[in-house]
């Protein structure tokens, strides 16, 4: 049986591990990346432990986060507790499950959300 093709986008994400990047000219907002391979498990079936975050230096708050650090329910109420997922996203004050597909989609979804939040905050048009 042939090996599955290597996911080069995963290599790129793993290379970002530990990086902090300024995302505006004044350096008020920064993105931080954590990505490490782990043994696949029910919580992390893709074999990846990750956290991609956007922070506001002035307030110290996380504005955006995509991670799999803890479980979240897809819906409120008793039915949601049975279908908890570890992959999720934080956007300002909300948290929702996230459907992880691959590293490239994760990074693209993160930057798309960062752009949306920074536009709302008037950082750029």
Q: How helical, in percent, are the residues?
A: 10-25%
Largest β-sheet summary:
6 strands, antiparallel
Q: SSE order in H/E notation? A: HEEEEHEEH
Spatial ordering of strands, largest sheet: 1-2-3-4-5-6
Average pLDDT metric? 88
How far apart are the first and last residues' alpha carbons, in Å?
Answer: 51 Å
Total DSSP E strands: 6
Given as residue ranges, the uncertain stretches (5+ residues, pLDDT < 50) are none
What's the structural domain tally? 1
Report the portion of residues in β strands. Answer: 25-35%
* Total helical segments: 3
What shape does the CA trace take?
globular
Secondary-structure class:
alpha+beta
Give a description of the structure:
- It is built from three helices and six strands.
- With 125 residues, it is of the alpha+beta class.
- It has one domain.
- It has a six-stranded antiparallel beta sheet.
- Strand 3 and strand 4 form a beta hairpin.
- The protein is globular and about 40 Å long.
Give structural attributes.
alpha+beta; six-stranded antiparallel beta sheet; 125 residues; 6 strands; 24% helix
Helix/strand layout:
Elements lengths: L7 H8 L4 E3 L6 E9 L10 E9 L5 E6 L10 H4 L6 E4 L2 E4 L5 H18 L5
Antiparallel strand pairs: 1-2, 2-3, 3-4, 4-5, 5-6
Quick take:
With 125 residues, the protein is an alpha+beta fold.
């Amino acid at each position: 049986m042939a090996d599955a093709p290597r996911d080069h986008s995963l290599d790129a994400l793993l290379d970002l591990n530990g990086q902090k990047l300024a995302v505006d000219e004044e350096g008020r907002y920064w993105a931080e990346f954590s990505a490490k391979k782990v043994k696949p498990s029910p919580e992390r079936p893709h074999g990846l432990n990750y956290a991609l975050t956007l922070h506001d230096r002035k307030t110290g708050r996380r504005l955006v986060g995509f991670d799999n650090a803890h479980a979240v329910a897809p819906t409120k109420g008793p039915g949601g507790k049975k279908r908890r997922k570890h992959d999720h996203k934080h956007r300002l004050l909300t948290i929702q499950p996230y459907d992880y597909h691959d590293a490239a989609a994760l990074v693209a979804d993160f930057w798309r959300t960062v752009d949306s939040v920074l536009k709302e905050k008037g950082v750029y048009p």
